[in-house]
C-alpha cells in the first residue's frame, strides 16, 4: 500500500518541474516586451533609446544592440527550459504512472 503514494509524488514533482520550466520563457517574454514597449515609446516621442542605460536620449543617437546579443544566456536557458518542459509534459501523458509487469501478482 505504501507504494501507491509514489505515483502521486511523482506527479507532483513533474508538475512542479514543468511550472519551473515555464517560468523562464515567461520571464524572457515579459522582459522582451517591456524593452520593446520602452523603445517604441521613446521613438514615438522623437528620441533615441539607449539600450545600455535603458533611457530615452533626445540629444544623441544610440546604436541598436539586438536582444539576442544582450541576453544570449537567458535565451539559451529559455530554450532548454522549453525542451525540458515539453519533454516532461510528454512523459506525463505518455508514460504510465503505475508499473505494468504483464502478469497479475494477486493470482500467484
Automatic annotation (TrEMBL):
Transmembrane segments: 74-93
Protein name in the entry: Uncharacterized protein
Alphabetical UniProt keywords: Membrane, Transmembrane, Transmembrane helix
Highest taxon of the lineage: Bacteria
Amino acid at each position: 500500500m505504501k507504494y501507491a503514494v509514489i505515483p502521486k509524488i511523482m506527479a507532483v514533482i513533474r508538475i512542479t518541474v514543468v511550472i519551473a520550466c515555464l517560468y523562464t520563457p515567461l520571464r524572457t517574454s515579459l522582459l522582451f516586451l517591456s524593452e520593446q514597449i520602452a523603445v517604441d515609446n521613446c521613438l514615438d516621442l522623437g528620441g533615441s533609446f539607449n539600450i545600455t542605460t535603458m533611457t530615452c536620449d533626445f540629444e544623441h543617437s544610440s546604436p541598436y544592440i539586438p536582444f539576442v546579443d544582450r541576453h544570449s544566456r537567458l535565451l539559451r536557458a529559455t530554450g532548454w527550459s522549453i525542451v525540458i518542459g515539453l519533454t516532461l509534459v510528454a512523459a506525463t501523458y505518455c508514460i504510465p504512472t503505475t508499473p505494468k509487469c504483464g502478469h497479475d501478482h494477486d493470482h500467484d
